Amino acid sequence: MGLLETTELFNRKDVPQEIKEKFQEVKRYTSHLEARLSMLSAENKRLGTAIKEQRRSKQSIEDRLSVNSKSGLLNHLKLNQDMVRILDEVKDKVSTNRFGVLIIKLDHNFDIVNKTLEPSMSEWIIYKIGDRLQGYVDKNGSVYHTRDDEFIIVYNGIKNTLRIESIADEIHKEVRKSHIFSGYHISVGCNIGISLFPEHGLKKRTLLHNADIALGYAREQRSVYQIFTEELRDQVVEKMELQNYIIKALEAQAITEINKQFELFYQPIIRVNQNKSGQTVITDIYGETLIRWNHPTKGAINPDKFIPVAEETGLIIPIGNWVLYTATKQMKQWEKDMGTPIYVSINLSPVQFANANFVSSIERTMQSRKIEPRYIRFEITESCVMEDPAESIKKIEQLRSTGVAFSIDDFGKGYSSLNYLRHFPVNTLKIDKSFVNNICSNQFDQVIVRAIFALAKELNFEVVVEGIETKEQFNYLYAQGCTLFQGYLFSKPKNPADFIEFYQTNKFSEVLG
Ligand code: C2E
Ligand code: CA
Ligand code: CA
Questions:
Q1: Which residue's alpha carbon is at the smallest distance from atom 46 of ligand 1?
Q2: What does 262-300 look like in DSSP terms, one character per residue?
């Protein structure tokens, strides 16, 4: 009703007062409703804005949760979400949608950068590498920064294995490009583990797990990349099985002295010389400890097979402690039985050698057994000392000051640098068996072995030649001035009782007489 009409109604005399009042009341109520309506509509507007705002901040939290703050790349949460989504999308079109999962792990150069340079530098390197990867992949897939030193790429549209191989090579080149800081060029390498959908798995977990298995192998072999294979999985399963067996064997060994699975054998190392009558005789016999493992169901397991697994898992530490415990116990027993101690050489793994407690644990064992340290010799390989030469020299010198001796085992087999030898305070070099195999016919081996003898003389090392299997090998090497020999020609590794019998029968007897 309009304003005019209202005024008109109030002026009319024929309209009863009661109606006029009712009308008045309705009018008041209507304007109240109108006011309320406009309030509600303002409230509604505000709510709409708030909801929009909330949606925006939810998105931004989700975005932040999906991003690695160091590189600005997508992170592992996003990788998981994306893989679930992609796999769901392609599940019905498996044959036409081949894609690759590449795990890229930066190599030890990155660790060095991380430990030695400012944190901002390693962050910058990560950022740059991530940026290059993103640039390389472009629209063909996605790059995720999943751990400090790890990126994962999901690469779409892989037509064949050759293609993924060239992608891996190109990614490696991108990662390796150097970074320049104040004139220095820093380059970080990487290893890449690859799995392919659908042949290496239809599920996210399987694809990532298999790429990780391939990565482990690439790192072990120091190769740029490795594509997953069934054999690699079998190897991993076998390793895990072996690891469990070692743990069980160590547990059993600790509980009971009988039914021991591990045993220590001793292989004679003989010293020869001419006696007054011109005969070549054995003047001394030492023993090298070699571990043996008789598994209750698997039978004898070769040390070459289980020692690398024990090293990888750290189980070599308890095994090494057991070897030291058993060898020193045996030495004490022989000393008691024979009235004189026997020199024993004990093999040390690089993992034991690198252990911070290594020196103190050996010192403790020698003291508690009351063993004269000069009867113990440790055999270490070149890889033991090359990892951290300064620290290794310190450890060797510390133990040598107590009287313990050191040999470099398998000399010549690895990346021997004759130059570093002068810095290592060892007593003996053991020339690797591979030089001995063809020593009578291979001139190259002859030159090398003669050079090692000359060097050893110069630097005052003794030389043991291992792996002597024939009389000809012995004769050739003896003629070159070698006096310490080890090999099947004289004796295979023996249990303690047989070793002592060999010792008693052969000491001071004519060589091969
Ligand atoms: P190694 O220290 O170089 O030991 C010499 C290996 O060559 C032994 O194999 C020995 O039986 C074998 N051998 C000795 N003479 C001859 C020969 O004339 N011909 C041939 N064909 N072989 C010969 P084994 O006992 O199987 O040990 C293999 C490796 O396992 C050892 O090589 C050593 O690296 C490791 N190992 C053995 N016991 C221990 C241990 O207690 N601790 C550690 N860390 N490693 C051990
Ligand atoms: Ca050895
Ligand atoms: Ca050796």
A1: 347
A2: EEEEEEEEEEEEE-TTS-EEEEEEEEEEEEEEEETTTEE
